[in-house]
Amino acid sequence: MSLTASGRRDWQEVEVAADTPSKGSLFMPGGQRSHRRERFPSDVEGDRYQQLRSRFESSVDLGDPPRDKSDIGSRKAPTHLQLGDFLGRGQFFAVYRALNLNTGHSVAVKRISLDNLEKEEVNQLAREVDLVMKLSHPCILKYEGMARDNDALSIVQEYAENGTLHQALKAFGKLNERVVATCVIKVLEGLHYLHSNDVVHCNLKAANILTTKSGHVKLSDFGFSLHIRALERGNSEFVGALNWTAPEIIELKRASPKSDIWSLACTVVELLTGRPPYANINDGASLMSRIVEDDMPPFPDNCSLLLEDFLKQCFNKDPTKRASAELLRQHEWLKKDWGAHHDDRQDDSHVLLRPDAVQLVAQPDAAETCPPCISVSSPPSLNTEIPFRGHSFVKTTFRLFSQPMVCRGCSLDIKKSAVLCEQCGFILHSKCARKASPTCDLRARLLPYADPCREASTQLTQWQRIFEAQTKEQIAACPDMDDELIMNSSSESAKINVYAHLLLFLSDSTQDTRLRVALGSVATFVTSLDPVWSFVQSAQVRIQLLRISSILSISDGEQLRTVVAKDESALGMLLHRILGTEREKKRLLGLKEESAQCAIDVIQDILDKNLLYDVADASIDSETLITKARRLLVKLSEASDTLPASLFIRGILQVDKEATFGGAFGDIYRASYKGRHVALKRMRVHVFQRNSDWHKLRRRLCREALLWQRLQNPFVLPFTGIDTESFPSFLCLVSPWMKHGTILKHLAENGNANVEQKLSEIAKGLLYLHSQDVVHGDLRGSNILVDDNWQVRLADFGLAGFSDATVGTQTSHRGGSVRWMSPELHWPQSCGLDSFRRTFASDAYSFACVCLELSQGKPPFFEIKEDMAVVLRVLAKERPARPEDHVSDSMWGIMQQCWAHDPAQRRSMAWVVEMMQETMSI
């Protein structure tokens, strides 16, 4: 990777040449040759390369350390290497292949330039190489030695024939989840080993994950010293790695094993999409700001729910709350994909077990089986007596296997023959068998397949401990709620326990005492929460319980779906009771940050699934209940500057460079989404602004998005979602692209034909909005679009609000188009009102003005230049003159009824639609 003169980054990683056939490779078909470059860099060609080679061969070594340990980088020793072909280069180094003349094996030599490095920096790097040389693990690239000449430090390491995962991406394109999960399993094994030895990788990405010809995955390039110094100097090499860098490192805090977990998640995104997170941001400063400011990087499109959960555990902004490598190795996403990759799992020898061992796996102890009414795969009992004895090795061959077998001792491929333990299935080279553990522990070999109930109880217990701590932290972060964790048991709302049916179902599905105790503990804690907090935390409880059902292999049964449906209905009833209690509503509106996001997502999910239709009672009908829930959602969203996660979309492409239209609060750009043209309304809300205007615009955006996303009508512009990626630091509302533009443009291009038909469609769209208790607030010709079928679509609900003033969600914004505004919006007291408020009646007045605008092709009072003069005439009860030969008598009568001075005397849109239908049918 390099930084161009303009400051834009060039996405070119180091390319490593390889002419070795990749037979048996995870990424290469058998016999196919790599197409990576096989050339020397221009600055070492010809004589200069020969001089470099001679100088290297006279100095490189793998022997004893120097006597003076303060100058560890100057060692000399007898082991001799012969430098071979050039493989590639990075910002600080060049990589060559070399031949170890003592063993005949190929190795890789990384020569790090000493230019601009102080002596102590070189020694520090050398000490770190000394450290990693002591590491030994199948998933860690082996470092074999180090030497120094006048201008470079040479590091000798294991040679990985297939190059990096980044090169695999370039050769084969983005990978699917199954292949990525297989790689991640190995990466996590390597990270767990590193972290257990107090080593932080600090530079994890696809370009630093190597693969061998047998498909083994190995971590390389522990570049801590160079990259920390690069950050301090503003070096472009570190800028190139920013996309994978954890926010705490950008803030110059201390790196930790959890920093590697963030980088791992970025690498997963890179492998699935072909590009790392924020690859579309070219400016380093903007990139760092996004990493630090965003809740988490964007996820790949169409990723599974299990993968989303995996990424969320890795992308926690708080390093202390990030999952560890050890915990992530047990994640359901990885376990799901392991089933399809037995050949890649080192401990998987089930197919080679003796017949009696296979029988033990297939026939569990009756005491561990589940009730016959539940379809659960029965686990074998760990209480069965399995004798501890020595290995029983027999010599055998593996020529018939399509995939190369791996020696469990040295992790190298088995060429032809090896020894196999008939009892535990251990496969080893003959020489490695002499060093193997003398004990044949069949119990340990069966453990991965033995007891899903134990796994479920362990995972549930660990989750509950974290869940309780996080819940108490969230309660403490909302001091305005005046919370107590334990509610009075006599409270009627407290009787509704979230996901009680699912907890009972899981408990009845197992006879395992440990799992039942763990489930009971979860139920006890959830019951202790008050109605608001149990509602807030319900989604986390659901996710974890469904994970447990997956472990028990009952995640897709009809009984599970039935109990989940009952719990969802109970959750709707809990929201019903919260809405009916002013104290609980007030407490819910006091939620902050993550807690507010959880509540918003749950409310949105309840509305999406229409759960409130089933819980309405005699005291309130379902429509009123749904309206109250929507109002609560809008108020909570505005108060917390938060929107439901389901509203955000990813994958916007081909955004125009220039805006097609512009308004007071946003600009319209054309783009592409899922193969169709869409319009992006870029709100002028920059994420780094923190003044009062910013908060007002954010609240306005939240209101508009929540009002718009639930509206579905042939005469209302559809809502597609919210985009945050196309314009970093800005929010965009996305809707289908209307190529015919506004109704004014359409009529002008078509000779003002069928004006009354279009007015009828506008009236029907406005009637639908009013039926949903939504006031448009800014109805005029430029906010009415025409779709591909030449049908009108009402748009731009920027000033929209609920009609009921008592809920506090109606707009009080006094903006808008003066010539279309009713007199009470100019001066409420002139119409006997106490305050400014948009209503259905003010929309009716605007509709009458739109009728005039479309009929004459000009705005109301077009002959008057000054808006203030128009306001004075409207307040004086004057109305525009009737245009000659443009408006029918019936239409003019409707307009006069709609723009009456007294709002109470204006006709409703239901009456307008009925009158227009009668007129058009004559």
List the helices and strands and how they pair.
Layout: E1 2-3, E2 9-10, H1 47-57, E3 81-89, E4 93-100, E5 106-113, H2 119-133, E6 143-148, E7 152-158, H3 165-172, H4 177-196, E8 209-211, E9 217-219, H5 224-233, H6 236-240, H7 247-250, H8 257-273, H9 284-293, H10 305-314, H11 325-328, H12 332-338, H13 355-362, E10 389-390, E11 393-397, E12 417-421, E13 427-428, H14 430-433, E14 439-440, H15 442-450, H16 452-476, H17 500-508, H18 513-528, H19 531-536, H20 538-551, H21 558-579, H22 582-588, H23 593-608, H24 622-640, E15 661-662, E16 666-673, E17 676-683, H25 692-709, E18 721-723, E19 731-736, H26 743-749, H27 755-771, E20 774-775, E21 784-786, E22 792-794, E23 801-802, H28 823-826, H29 840-856, H30 867-875, H31 889-898, H32 909-921
Antiparallel strand pairs: 1-2, 3-4, 4-5, 5-7, 6-7, 8-9, 10-14, 11-12, 12-13, 15-16, 16-17, 17-19, 18-19, 20-23, 21-22
Helix pairs in contact: 4-8, 4-12, 16-18, 16-20, 17-18, 17-21, 23-24, 24-25, 27-29, 27-32, 29-31, 31-32
GO molecular function: ATP binding; metal ion binding; protein kinase activity
Biased composition (Basic and acidic residues): 39-74
Domain Phorbol-ester/DAG-type: 390-440
